[in-house]
Structure formats: structure tokens, C-alpha cells
UniProtKB/TrEMBL annotation:
Gene3D superfamilies: P-loop containing nucleotide triphosphate hydrolases (3.40.50.300). InterPro entries: ATPase_dyneun-rel_AAA, CbbQ/NirQ/NorQ/GpvN, CobS_N_dom, P-loop_NTPase. It comes from the Bacteria. Pfam families: AAA_5 (PF07728), CobS_N (PF12556). Residues 64-189 form the ATPase dynein-related AAA domain. This is Cobaltochelatase subunit CobS. It comes from Noviherbaspirillum saxi. GO terms for molecular function: ATP binding; ATP hydrolysis activity. SUPFAM superfamilies: P-loop containing nucleoside triphosphate hydrolases (SSF52540). Residues 9-37 form the Cobaltochelatase subunit CobS N-terminal domain.
């Protein structure tokens, strides 16, 4: 891993000026960017409450969890705040392949003076703890139990981390920050959408100082994001099309909440649909390829009805009949 110099933030930014939120909060920021600082996405829209929660994490060293459905931009929200503070970030997805050794470290064989010697290689946690880095654990509720107990050590107030193999105690850098994202707040796969998520014990959740919920954006803001992502739809005609797309997406979300659908359209899916419209030049075809084919066959007629309500046109009946006839 590339070394990061432990240079502290050198300036304070006004949250009101930087993020447009009506507050007197000031937040520390770095003067210069390095390769670990995320790129600024000028099209990103900030949720004020979640932004304040994340900024509290950066300013007061609070452990912040951002919870919400897929596609709401939880990890991106943290990264985009960090990008505007020039704060280096490391994002780790807690999938089934991340092990305790990946987080803590392990002995490795290296060549020294043409001889093989055993050296301890620091894992993700001790490396990040010693540097001014915002460490983001993605999909927190999908982590394995042995991995979660490693993380629990650094959730304490002082955040000290003991490397037992090295007989060494690591004290966190003053500007180390810790964030996480999750879909279920540790309640497991209640609705069947998030296979692989785990039930987390309350002692684990209780150590997070701030838990923010990120919901889908209001329609006008979602439309603006889609238009920013797909410049070909930036005009008035494009806005009418995108507005219908977002309205359809909202119907799928309400249908999911009511139990009529087992999947929903996230903002990410709407953007993909808009991009595919540009590729295929056909809104209905792009919709089928972007979302409808992901739906359960028994639910496609419901989604087709949503499409008809938003666009005033039927999806190809032959396609729907073909889908129903599939074994």
C-alpha cells in the first residue's frame, strides 16, 4: 500500500458554504489532495441530515453508520463528503472473502539479502489506524462473525488495537475516522432482498455513535441526477422522459413496500435505464433490459401496468406472453 504522510488538516471549512446546509458547524479539511481522496462528483445531491451525521463523524471523531436500501448512495455519500474535505478514504467491502487475517495482518515470507525471512504484514485495520484516513466498511451486515469481532475492538472510545502476534498496541491517529454502511441495521434478511446479511448482536450495533438513514431522493432531485448523468436527456423533452422514468421507479418502490413486488428500481437502475435508452433508442426495450428481466415472471404484468400508467403505452404484449409461457 502507498504510504500516506500523517499531515493533519490545515483549515476549517464552513458547512453552510461548502454544503449549503443552514448550520454554523465548521469541519476540518486537508489543504492538498492525494491519490486516496475520492474524485468530486458535481452531480451528487446531498441529504442534509445524513450529511450532518457524516460531518459530525469527521469533526468529532464519531463512529457513523449509514443505513438504507440499495442504490440510495450510502457509500458514495460518505466518499463525496470526504472528497470535498480532501480527506483520504479507504473503502472495504465486507463480503465473504474478507477474513480476520485480511483485517489484522499475517506473517509473510519475503526476500532480504537473498534470504527468505518471515515478516509480519499489517492488515487493513492497523494500516489505516495509524494514518489520517476515513475507513469505510461497506455491507457491514454481511461481515463474518470473526471479522466483526475484530472491528469491535476499534469501536471503543479510545479505539486502541492490540496486535497479539506482535505484542504491540496501536493507538489511532488523531485524524483516523471510521464509517460503515448497511442495508438492514443488523436485523438480517427479513424481507428476502439481502441474502447473505447477518444478524448482529446489540453490543456491536450499540458501539456506533450515530446511525443515519438514507432514503431515496425527492423526484425533482432524482430527475436532476439522471439528467446530469446522461447529458443527452438534459433538455425539456429529456426531462419529461426522465420524469416518467422516476415516476415508474417510485411505483415499484411503493409496490415493494406493499408486498406486491419482490424487487424495486433504485436510482442506480433508473440511471442505467436512461443510459440504455441512449444506446438502443427505444425506451421500452431499454426498460426490459434494465429492469423488467430482473423481475419474477409472476410480477412482470404488475410492472407492465406501472409502465402503461407512466408512459401511456403498452410494453410489447408478445414479450409478456413469451415470458408467461417460459417453463
Amino acid at each position: 500500500m502507498t504510504e500516506i504522510l500523517p499531515t493533519p488538516p490545515t483549515r476549517m471549512l464552513s458547512v453552510r458554504q461548502q454544503f449549503g446546509i443552514d448550520t454554523d458547524m465548521m469541519v476540518p479539511a486537508f489543504e492538498e489532495r492525494d491519490e486516496h481522496v475520492p474524485e468530486i462528483d458535481s452531480a451528487y445531491r446531498f441529504n442534509p441530515d445524513v450529511t450532518l451525521a457524516i460531518l459530525a463523524g469527521f469533526t468529532r471523531n464519531r463512529r457513523v453508520m449509514v443505513q438504507g436500501l440499495h442504490g440510495t448512495g450510502k457509500s458514495t455519500h460518505i466518499e463525496q463528503v470526504a472528497a470535498r474535505l480532501n480527506w483520504p478514504c479507504m473503502r472495504v467491502n465486507l463480503d465473504g472473502h474478507i477474513s480476520r487475517l485480511d483485517l489484522v495482518g499475517k506473517d509473510t515470507i519475503v526476500l532480504r539479502d537473498e534470504k527468505q525471512v518471515t515478516e509480519f504484514q499489517e492488515g487493513i485495520v492497523p494500516w489505516a489506524l495509524q494514518r489520517p484516513v476515513a475507513l469505510i466498511f461497506d455491507e457491514y451486515d454481511a461481515g463474518r462473525p470473526d471479522v466483526m469481532f475484530v472491528i469491535q475492538r476499534i469501536l471503543e472510545r479510545d479505539g486502541k488495537f492490540t496486535l497479539l502476534d506482535q505484542n504491540r498496541v496501536i493507538h489511532p491517529h488523531p485524524f483516523f475516522r471510521l464509517f460503515t454502511t448497511s442495508n438492514t441495521i443488523g436485523l438480517g434478511n427479513l424481507n428476502g432482498m439481502y441474502h447473505g446479511t447477518q444478524l448482529l448482536n446489540h453490543a456491536q450495533i450499540d458501539r456506533w455513535n450515530i446511525v443515519a438513514t438514507l432514503n431515496y431522493l425527492p423526484a425533482d432531485e432524482e430527475i436532476a441526477i439522471v439528467q446530469a448523468r446522461v447529458p443527452a436527456l438534459a433538455g425539456d423533452e429529456g426531462r419529461k422522459l426522465v420524469a416518467s422514468m422516476v415516476a415508474l421507479a417510485d411505483l415499484t418502490r411503493k409496490g415493494f413496500a406493499a408486498g406486491d413486488l419482490s424487487c424495486l428500481m433504485s436510482p442506480r437502475t433508473v440511471i442505467t435505464w436512461a443510459e440504455n435508452c441512449e444506446i438502443f433508442g427505444d425506451t421500452a426495450l431499454a426498460f426490459r433490459l434494465s429492469f423488467l428481466n430482473k423481475c419474477d415472471e409472476s410480477e412482470r404484468s404488475i410492472v407492465a401496468e406501472y409502465y402503461q400508467r407512466c408512459f401511456g403505452a403498452e410494453l410489447l404484449e408478445s414479450f409478456l406472453c413469451e415470458s408467461r409461457a417460459m417453463p
